[in-house]
Specification:
Elements: H1 2-43, H2 49-73, H3 75-78, H4 87-115, H5 125-149, H6 152-181, H7 190-211
Helix pairs in contact: 1-2, 2-4, 2-7, 4-5, 6-7
């Protein structure tokens, strides 16, 4: 009995942690390579590290959103790699997961659009501005819908993640600005601040989920 339990635990560990990490890593690498290749061609000598990093982070948001969205749309497939007990649990969480995935998709596209905006990029300024505003607002609305549809645990995680995101942004951004004021480091560009918000928000979500035991392999 103990051997059987151990075997199931090992299979679950491989299926829901190792394999998704490898698949996600490969997808993230492919997206990053594609973005850098495209931007080097579209921007030429005007390509900047800040814009490329912003576009890569936006692309990673899309990779995560696609993984969650596909799993939520097809519970039978999602139970194989999402960290849930079974397909029934995914069905119960489908509204939350689908809204979250859609919000992440819109936010990821918004950051990519801004990274590709003129004057250096191919997207006209006004088009980038209007698109980014619409995408940010729509994504925030979907995130709010996801929060409202969440159970008590997920709602608590969302609130705690917001707290961690605020603290992380203040600590990291504030410390960097102190260094920039003292001319110890270069000041962050506006696109760098946006990228920082995205990265810290994602890290905060993992921290809050981990503290609530939601990252334990099921």
């Amino acid at each position: 009995m103990m051997t059987e339990t151990k075997s199931k635990s090992e299979v679950s560990f491989m299926r829901k942690l190792v394999i998704p990490m490898i698949a996600g890593g490969l997808a993230g690498f492919a997206v990053s390579f594609g973005i850098i290749f495209y931007m080097d061609g579209a921007f030429g000598s005007d390509a900047s590290i800040s814009r490329e990093i912003a576009a890569i982070v936006g692309g990673l948001y899309l990779v995560i959103a696609i993984g969650v969205g596909v799993g939520a749309a097809s519970p039978a497939l999602g139970e194989k790699y999402l960290n849930t007990d079974d397909a029934e649990e995914i069905l119960e969480m489908r509204t939350v997961l689908m809204n979250s995935a859609a919000a992440m998709t819109l936010w990821g596209v918004a950051l990519i659009v801004l990274a590709l905006a003129a004057p250096a990029g191919p997207i006209p300024v006004m088009m980038a501005l209007v698109s980014a505003i619409v995408l940010f607002v729509a994504g925030s609305w979907l995130a709010w819908r996801s929060h409202k549809a969440s159970d008590e645990l997920f709602a608590a995680v969302n609130i705690e993640a917001s707290m961690w995101a605020y603290v992380g942004t203040v600590l990291i951004g504030g410390s960097w600005m102190v260094g920039a004021h003292l001319q110890l480091v270069p000041a962050l560009a506006p696109i760098d601040w946006l990228t920082l918000f995205y990265v810290v928000a994602l890290a905060a979500s993992f921290i809050a989920s981990g503290r609530r035991g939601m990252l334990k392999i099921k």
